[in-house]
C-alpha cells in the first residue's frame, strides 16, 4: 500500500493481512492516534525482517561456498604449504582437490615423498565417499571408503641429506580417533635397493583392501599382486596403528600373517636379500610356497612355512653364476611363555644343509626350561666360496677344490643345569690360488662342552675346550672361577696356509704362547693373562713392518661377584706390562665398569708410563711409519718418556698425557738432527659442555738443530704448536678448533673440520700463515738444496678443502683451495727477484701458481699449472709465453745455467747483455720415469751481448778471423728442444746467426773481400 503522508511503499506481513481481513470497513476508527500507532508498529517489524535477511543471506552464501575456499587454487596452495612445513623434510603435492557439502572428496595427481625412508608414492586419483563436513578433522575422523586408483610406490635408499635435515613440528589434528576402509586398484610397487643400480622386478596389478575400524583397534588387510610372471597373495590381522606409531613391541594383540607365492621369479626377492649380502647379487629361478605367522607380544610367536626355489641360480660380485639347483626351506616352530619348539626346521641347498629340532618346556617351578634342542649343519665349502665368496671379500682367483665343515651340537636342560655340546670338524680341505696349492697338514677340529647352572649363584663350568690345527693348539678346562687356557700359535704357518682366504690381512710371522687363568678369591674373581712373542712381525705393506724380536705382555685384574653370585660388569685393580728388549710400557687402573649396553661408563685411577728408546718405537710403530722414517729412527739415539692419567665418571671423561723426547739424535744422509728437548702435553675431556664431543688439546714445545760436518746449519730455538680437536662419538667429522704454530719457520693459525680421519682425512680449513723464507732456506740446506736465498715473513690468508690421506693424486683430483705467500726477495744463480706475491689456486684437479717479480732489472712471468686427470699428472707452462723478459745476464747465470744448457758457453766471460725466454711448449708428464718426463720447445734471446768467448765457442767457428776474443751482438736467438728428457740445442741456427751478425757488423773480423761470399755459400748448404 502507499502511505499518502510519506508517499512510500509499506509491505504487509501475514499478520497484517489477517487483521485487514477481519476489519469492518463500514466502521471508522474514532481515534486517529490509534491508527497512527498501528502504522508505526507495522513499519518497525518490517525493518527488523529486512535487517535479518541482510545478515542471513550473506552467511548462507558464505556457508555454501566454504568448501570452495579450501579447494580453490590459492586455498589448496596454502593448505599444502602448511602441511609440508609441518611434515618436513617429507612433502605432499597434488594438482587438484575437490570436495563439497554434497560432493565426495577427490584428489588428483597426489604425490607423497618420504626421503628419510627412501619412499615415494604417487597416485593419479584418490577418492572417498565422504563429504566435506564428514572429513573435517574434528572429533572422530572417519575417512570412509578411500579408493586409490593406479598408485605407484617406489622404495629406494634413503636420502643422506634428508637424514640430517631439520624436521617439522609434526601434523597435529584435533581428532581423538581415526577410521576408514581403503582399496588399492591396479597398483605398482618398485623396490630399487639393488646395489648395482638395477631395479628388481616390480610388483604390478596390486589389488588390496584394508579395514581399520579405529586408531586404537587392530586392522585387517588382504591383497594380491603379480611379480615375475607369478602371483603373490597376503592376508592378515595386525595390531593397531597406535601400537605401530609408538613402536610398542609388547602389545598383546594377536597378529596373523599369511603369504603365498606361486611361480614367482626369484629376482623379485633380490631387494630383500641384497642388503644383507652387501654386494651386487643376481638371482634366477622360480619361488613357490606358503608362510604363516602368528605373533602376540615379544615372547609368543609361532610359524609354519614351506618355500621351494626351483632351477635357482645365484651370482655375487664377479663370480660365475651357480649351476641351477633346488632349495627347500621348511619350518615349523613356536616360541611362547611355556615352550620353545622346532619340529623341525630344515634347509637343503647346494651350499648349506641345516636341521634343527627339539623342545624346551617350562618345568613345574615355572623358572627353568627342560628338554633338548639338537641340530646339525654342513657347510659345503667349494660351492659356498665359489658362489658367495664376494660377500666375504674372497677373491675370485681362489679355488676351493674340496672340503666341508660339519657342525653338530645340542643343548640339554634339566631342573639344575643347561649343558652345551658343540663340535666342528673340517674334512678334506684343499684350495689353490695363483700363489700355489695348499693342503693343510692337519685338518682343524674344535670341541666345546660346558654346563651352565640355572642358579645364578653357581658359575658355569667348561668341561672341555680344544682347538687343534697345523698352526695352533689351544685347550682349556675348569669352572669359570678356576679356568685355565693354554696354547701355542705358529703365525708363519697360519699365514702360509690361510692368507689366501684372508687376502686383506697383513703378512705374519713368529710364534705366540698364551697362558690365561682365573681364580676365585673371596668375593672376587682374579684374571691373569700372559702372552709371549718371539720373532713376531706384522707386515701390512711390503715396505712397512711392525717388529718385536722378543717380548711379553701381562694383564692382571679382578671382577667382583654380585649378591646373587653372578659377575658384575667390572674389571678392577687392573695392571698391564709390555716388555720389549730395550724398554717397558706399563700401567693400570683401580676400577673399570660397563653398563648393560657394553659402553664404558666408569674408569678410576688409570695410569700409564713408559721409557722406551726411540729406535724401539720404530719397531713397535713400524707398520704405520714410512720406510725412510722407520729406517732413520732405527739408527736414532735417545728415549721417549710418556706418562698419562685418565678418569671417566658420570658421563664425563678427562685425561692428561705428558711426553718428552730427551737427548735424541737422528742421523741422515746429509747430517744429524739433534733434539735435546721436545715436550708435549695433551688434555682430553668429554661431556663437560653437556655434549658427547671428546675434546683434545695438545701443546708441543721444544728445541732442535741440524748439523752437517759438526757445523749447525739449522736451529729451532723455541718452537711452539697447539692442536685442539673435537671428536664426535661417531668419529666421522672432527671440528678442528685450533691449529697454531709459532717458531723459526714462521707462524700459522688454522681452524675448520677434519672428516673421515682414518681413511681419506678430508680437511676443510681456513686461516692465516706467515712462512719465514729465511729459515726455510736454511731448512732446505739440510737437504743439500743450496745455491739460492729467500727472504720474507708476512701474514696471508689460506683456504683448503681436500683429502690428505690418499696420496697426491687424490689430493689434486678432489682438492679445492686458494692462498698466497709474500716473498720479499729471492737470490740464486746470479738472479735477484724483488718483492712479489706467489698466488696459488687449487680447483678439482688443477693447481695454478702465479709469480711475477722484477728479476735482474727485467721481468719474470712464471704461471705454471699442475693438472691431474684419471691417468696422468701434467706440469705445464702456458704456451707462447715470455717467461723471462730482458733479464740482465750475469756471470753465475752464464756458468750455472746457460753453460749447462749448451757447452758453447763454457768458459765464456760476460761483459754485458740481457736475455729473454719464450716458451712455445713446456710440459712434464709426472707419471713417466724422471728421465723421460720433460718435453719443451724454447727460444732463448740474447740481446746487446758482449762476452769474451771461451774455447768451445772459438772451436765451433774456426773460419772466423776474430781480431780479439770479444764477441758483440745486438740480437742472438738460441732454439732449445727438450724431448723425453733429452736437451737439444739447435747449434746450426745459432752459428748461422753468429756468422751473419759478425759478417754484417764487420767490427771484429779482419778485412777479407771474399769472406762474405764464403759465409753465404756455407749458409746455403
What would your notes on this structure say?
The protein has 1021 residues and is an alpha+beta fold. 17% of the residues lie in helices and 53% in strands. The chain has 17 helices and 55 strands. It has a 52-stranded mixed beta sheet that branches. A 3-stranded antiparallel beta sheet has the order 40-43-44. A hairpin with a 2-residue loop joins strand 35 (694-708) and strand 36 (711-727). Helix 2 crosses helix 3 (73-87), helix 10 packs antiparallel against helix 11 and helix 16 packs antiparallel against helix 17 (1011-1020). The longest helix is centred in the N-terminal third of the chain and has 40 residues, at 32-71. Mean pLDDT is 80; it is low at 1-29, 1002-1012 and 1014-1021.
Summarize the structure in short.
With 1021 residues, the protein is α+β, with helices and mostly antiparallel strands. Helices cover 17% and strands 53% of the residues.
Q: Please give the number of β-strands.
A: 55
Q: What would you call the structural class?
A: alpha+beta
The shape, in one word, is globular
Q: Could you give the distance between the termini?
A: 136 Å
Task: Tell me the helix content.
Answer: 10-25%
Strand content: over 45%
State mean pLDDT (0 to 100 scale). 80
Largest sheet: 52 strands, mixed
Query: Rg, please?
Result: 45 Å
List unreliable stretches of 5+ residues. Answer: 1-29, 1002-1012, 1014-1021
How many separate helices?
17
Q: How is this fold's topology laid out?
A:
Elements: H1 14-22, H2 32-71, H3 73-87, E1 91-93, E2 96-98, E3 106-114, E4 119-128, H4 132-135, E5 139-149, E6 152-155, H5 160-163, E7 175-191, E8 203-212, E9 219-227, E10 230-238, H6 241-245, E11 255-265, H7 270-277, E12 281-296, E13 300-316, E14 325-335, E15 339-348, E16 352-362, E17 369-380, H8 381-388, E18 399-413, E19 417-433, E20 436-438, E21 445-453, E22 461-468, E23 472-479, E24 484-490, H9 491-498, E25 507-521, E26 524-541, E27 544-560, E28 572-580, E29 583-589, E30 591-594, E31 600-613, H10 614-620, H11 627-634, E32 637-649, E33 652-667, E34 672-686, E35 694-708, E36 711-727, E37 733-743, E38 746-755, E39 762-771, H12 773-781, E40 788-791, E41 796-803, H13 807-814, E42 816-823, E43 825-828, E44 831-833, E45 836-843, E46 846-851, E47 854-855, E48 858-860, E49 865-868, E50 873-876, E51 881-888, H14 891-901, E52 909-925, E53 934-948, H15 951-956, E54 966-979, E55 982-985, H16 987-1001, H17 1011-1020
Parallel strand pairs: 5-7, 6-7
Antiparallel strand pairs: 1-3, 2-3, 3-4, 4-5, 4-6, 7-8, 8-9, 9-10, 10-11, 11-12, 12-13, 13-14, 14-15, 15-16, 16-17, 17-18, 18-19, 19-20, 19-21, 21-22, 22-23, 23-24, 24-25, 25-26, 26-27, 27-28, 28-29, 29-31, 30-31, 31-32, 32-33, 33-34, 34-35, 35-36, 36-37, 37-38, 38-39, 39-41, 40-43, 41-42, ...
Helix pairs in contact: 2-3, 10-11, 16-17
Amino acid at each position: 500500500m502507499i502511505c499518502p503522508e510519506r508517499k512510500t511503499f509499506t509491505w504487509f506481513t501475514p499478520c497484517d493481512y489477517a487483521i485487514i481481513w477481519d476489519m469492518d470497513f463500514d466502521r471508522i476508527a474514532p481515534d486517529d492516534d490509534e491508527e497512527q500507532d498501528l502504522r508505526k508498529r507495522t513499519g518497525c517489524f518490517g525493518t527488523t525482517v529486512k535487517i535479518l535477511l541482510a545478515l542471513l543471506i550473506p552467511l548462507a552464501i558464505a556457508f555454501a561456498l566454504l568448501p570452495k575456499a579450501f579447494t580453490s587454487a590459492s586455498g589448496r596452495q596454502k593448505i599444502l604449504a602448511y602441511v609440508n612445513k609441518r611434515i618436513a623434510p617429507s612433502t605432499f603435492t597434488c594438482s587438484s582437490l575437490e570436495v563439497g557439502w554434497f560432493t565426495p572428496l577427490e584428489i588428483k595427481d597426489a604425490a607423497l615423498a618420504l626421503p628419510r625412508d627412501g619412499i615415494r608414492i604417487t597416485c593419479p586419483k584418490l577418492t572417498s565417499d565422504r563429504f566435506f563436513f564428514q572429513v573435517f578433522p574434528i572429533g572422530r575422523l572417519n575417512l570412509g571408503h578411500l579408493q586409490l586408483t593406479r598408485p605407484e610406490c617406489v622404495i629406494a635408499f634413503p636420502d643422506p641429506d634428508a637424514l640430517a635435515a631439520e624436521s617439522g613440528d609434526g601434523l597435529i589434528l584435533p581428532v581423538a580417533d581415526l577410521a576408514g576402509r581403503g582399496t588399492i586398484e591396479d597398483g605398482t610397487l618398485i623396490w630399487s635397493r639393488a646395489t648395482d643400480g638395477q631395479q628388481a622386478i616390480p610388483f604390478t596389478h596390486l589389488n588390496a583392501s584394508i579395514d581399520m575400524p579405529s586408531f586404537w583397534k587392530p586392522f585387517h588387510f588382504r591383497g594380491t599382486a603379480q611379480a615375475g610372471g607369478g602371483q603373490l597373495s597376503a592376508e592378515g590381522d595386525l595390531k593397531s596403528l597406535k601400537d605401530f606409531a609408538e613402536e610398542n613391541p609388547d602389545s598383546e594383540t594377536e597378529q596373523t600373517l599369511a603369504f603365498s607365492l606361486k611361480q614367482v621369479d626369484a629376482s623379485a626377492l633380490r631387494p630383500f636379500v641384497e642388503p644383507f649380502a652387501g654386494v651386487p647379487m643376481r638371482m634366477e629361478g622360480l619361488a613357490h610356497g606358503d608362510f604363516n605367522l602368528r605373533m602376540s607380544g615379544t615372547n609368543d610367536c609361532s610359524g609354519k612355512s614351506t618355500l621351494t626355489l626351483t632351477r635357482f641360480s645365484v651370482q655375487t660380485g664377479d663370480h660365475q653364476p651357480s649351476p641351477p639347483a633346488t632349495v627347500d626351506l621348511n619350518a615349523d616352530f613356536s616360541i611362547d611363555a611355556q615352550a620353545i619348539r622346532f619340529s623341525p626346521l630344515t634347509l637343503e641347498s647346494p651350499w648349506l644343509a641345516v636341521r634343527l629340532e627339539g623342545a624346551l618346556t617350562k618345568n613345574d617351578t615355572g623358572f627353568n626350561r627342560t628338554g633338548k634342542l639338537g641340530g646339525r649343519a654342513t657347510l659345503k665349502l667349494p660351492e659356498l666360496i665359489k658362489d658367495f665368496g664376494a660377500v666375504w671379500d674372497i677373491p675370485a682367483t681362489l679355488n676351493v677344490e674340496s672340503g666341508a665343515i660339519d657342525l653338530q651340537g645340542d643343548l640339554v636342560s634339566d631342573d639344575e643345569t643347561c649343558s652345551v655340546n658343540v663340535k666342528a670338524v673340517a674334512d678334506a680341505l684343499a684350495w689353490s690360488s695363483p700363489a700355489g696349492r695348499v693342503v693343510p697338514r692337519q685338518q682343524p677340529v674344535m670341541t666345546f662342552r660346558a654346563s651352565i647352572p640355572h642358579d645364578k649363584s653357581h658359575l658355569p663350568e667348561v668341561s672341555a675346550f680344544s682347538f687343534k690345527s697345523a698352526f695352533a693348539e689351544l685347550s682349556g678346562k675348569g669352572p669359570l672361577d678356576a679356568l685355565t687356557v693354554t696354547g701355542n700359535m705358529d703365525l708363519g704357518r697360519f699365514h702360509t696356509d690361510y692368507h689366501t682366504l684372508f687376502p686383506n690381512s697383513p703378512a705374519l710371522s713368529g710364534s705366540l704362547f698364551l697362558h690365561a687363568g682365573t681364580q676365585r678369591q673371596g668375593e672376587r674373581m682374579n684374571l691373569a693373562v700372559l702372552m709371549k712373542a718371539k720373532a713376531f712381525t706384522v707386515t701390512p705393506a711390503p715396505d712397512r713392518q711392525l717388529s718385536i724380536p722378543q717380548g711379553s705382555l701381562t694383564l692382571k685384574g679382578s671382577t667382583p661377584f654380585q649378591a646373587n653370585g653372578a659377575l658384575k660388569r667390572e674389571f678392577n685393580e687392573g695392571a698391564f706390562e709390555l716388555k720389549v728388549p730395550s724398554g717397558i710400557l706399563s700401567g693400570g687402573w683401580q676400577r673399570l665398569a660397563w653398563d648393560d649396553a657394553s659402553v664404558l661408563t666408569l674408569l678410576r685411577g688409570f695410569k700409564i708410563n713408559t721409557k722406551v728408546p726411540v729406535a724401539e718405537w720404530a719397531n713397535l710403530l713400524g707398520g704405520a711409519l714410512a720406510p725412510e722414517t722407520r729406517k732413520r729412527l732405527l739408527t736414532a739415539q735417545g728415549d721417549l718418556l710418556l706418562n698419562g692419567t685418565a678418569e671417566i665418571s658420570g658421563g664425563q671423561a678427562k685425561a692428561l698425557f705428558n711426553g718428552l723426547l730427551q737427548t735424541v739424535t737422528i742421523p741422515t744422509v746429509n747430517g744429524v738432527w739433534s733434539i735435546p728437548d721436545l715436550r708435549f702435553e695433551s688434555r682430553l675431556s668429554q661431556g663437560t659442555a653437556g655434549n658427547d664431543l671428546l675434546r683434545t688439546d695438545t701443546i708441543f714445545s721444544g728445541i732442535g738443530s741440524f748439523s752437517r760436518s759438526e757445523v749447525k746449519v739449522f736451529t729451532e730455538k723455541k718452537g711452539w704448536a697447539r692442536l685442539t680437536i673435537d671428536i664426535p662419538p661417531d668419529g666421522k667429522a672432527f671440528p678442528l678448533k685450533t691449529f697454531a704454530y709459532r717458531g723459526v719457520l714462521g707462524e700459522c693459525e688454522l681452524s675448520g673440520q677434519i672428516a673421515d680421519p682414518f681413511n681419506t682425512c678430508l680437511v676443510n680449513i681456513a686461516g692465516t700463515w706467515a712462512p719465514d723464507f729465511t729459515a726455510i732456506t736454511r731448512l732446505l740446506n739440510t737437504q743439500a738444496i743450496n745455491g739460492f736465498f729467500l727472504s720474507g715473513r708476512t701474514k696471508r690468508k689460506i683456504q683448503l678443502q681436500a683429502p690428505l690421506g690418499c696420496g697426491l693424486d687424490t689430493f689434486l683430483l678432489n682438492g679445492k683451495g686458494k692462498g698466497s705467500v709474500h716473498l720479499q726477495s729471492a737470490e740464486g744463480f746470479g738472479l735477484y727477484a724483488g718483492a712479489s706475491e706467489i698466488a696459488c689456486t687449487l680447483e678439482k684437479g688443477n693447481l695454478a701458481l702465479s709469480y711475477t717479480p722484477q728479476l735482474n732489472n727485467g721481468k719474470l712471468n712464471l704461471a705454471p699449472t699442475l693438472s691431474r686427470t684419471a691417468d696422468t699428472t701434467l706440469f705445464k707452462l702456458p704456451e707462447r709465453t715470455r717467461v723471462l723478459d730482458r733479464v740482465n745476464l750475469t756471470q753465475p747465470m752464464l756458468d750455472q745455467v746457460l753453460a749447462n744448457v749448451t757447452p758453447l758457453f763454457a768458459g765464456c766471460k760476460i761483459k754485458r747483455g740481457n736475455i729473454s725466454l719464450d716458451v712455445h711448449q713446456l710440459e712434464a708428464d709426472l707419471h713417466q720415469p724422471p728421465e723421460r718426463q720433460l718435453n719443451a720447445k724454447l727460444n732463448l734471446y740474447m740481446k746487446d751481448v758482449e762476452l769474451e768467448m771461451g774455447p768451445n765457442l772459438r772451436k765451433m767457428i774456426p773460419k772466423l778471423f776474430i781480431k780479439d776474443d770479444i764477441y758483440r751482438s745486438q740480437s742472438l736467438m738460441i732454439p732449445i728442444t727438450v724431448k723425453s728428457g733429452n736437451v737439444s740445442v739447435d747449434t746450426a741456427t745459432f752459428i748461422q746467426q753468429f756468422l751473419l751478425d759478425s759478417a754484417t757488423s764487420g767490427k771484429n773480423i779482419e778485412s777479407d773481400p771474399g769472406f762474405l761470399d764464403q759465409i753465404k755459400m756455407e749458409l746455403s748448404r
